[in-house]
Amino acid sequence: MSKVTKVLFMFCIGLGVTACSTPAAKVEKMAACVFPDSDDAAPPWVCGAPVEGMAAGAVGSAARSDAGTAFMKQIAANAARAELAQTMKVQAQTLIEQYAETSGAGSKEMVGRVRASVARQITGQTLYGSRVFKSMVAPDGEMFVLVGLDEPGIQSVVETAIKASMNNDQAIWKQFKTKMNLDELAAEIAKQKEGPAAAGPDNAQH
After folding, report:
1. Within its chain, how far is the Cα of 159 from the centroid?
2. Would the pTM of this model clear 0.90, i.e. be above it?
3. Which residues pair with 34 in a beta bridge?
4. Which residues of 56-66 are buried (b: 16+ CB within 10 A; e: fewer)?
């Protein structure tokens, strides 16, 4: 059985309008969720439905193993965190670019170098505050796990990554035009909100 990971970057704006304007038959079809490569019904979160309290998350899976469910859950959670890290890299880079545009800090080339530096700091092992929201075993024995972050968790990950980047690549950060010290700058960037594409979910339920 192949392992499946899905990034769940969830946005709730406009869902109500969409539901009201979509024919009933189409809504019912869209609501159906099945496990990959199967006709077995799956809970909505496996297919990317929003989960209360989670602002950004990802689903990871692990094939059935004789090592037991605890081992499978760990493998699936690691896969989910790796995917969630990719989402967080994009969000951190977007926030940096937005800050640069609004503050006039740094040239386009310099901003690109800063974005790349920050992205390198975010990995599945550095997602402080991420946790398992939901998990379950599919009928065929495959384990699915949803790992996510709440809004404060997202801010913490971004700020931590920026500070690590500042320590490792001080030269490029010093060229950012700012009157703030680096700690203040990191917090300021992390507190920003993305534009229309801002994120969604977190809180563990096993």
Report:
1. 15
2. no
3. 41
4. bbbbbbbeeee
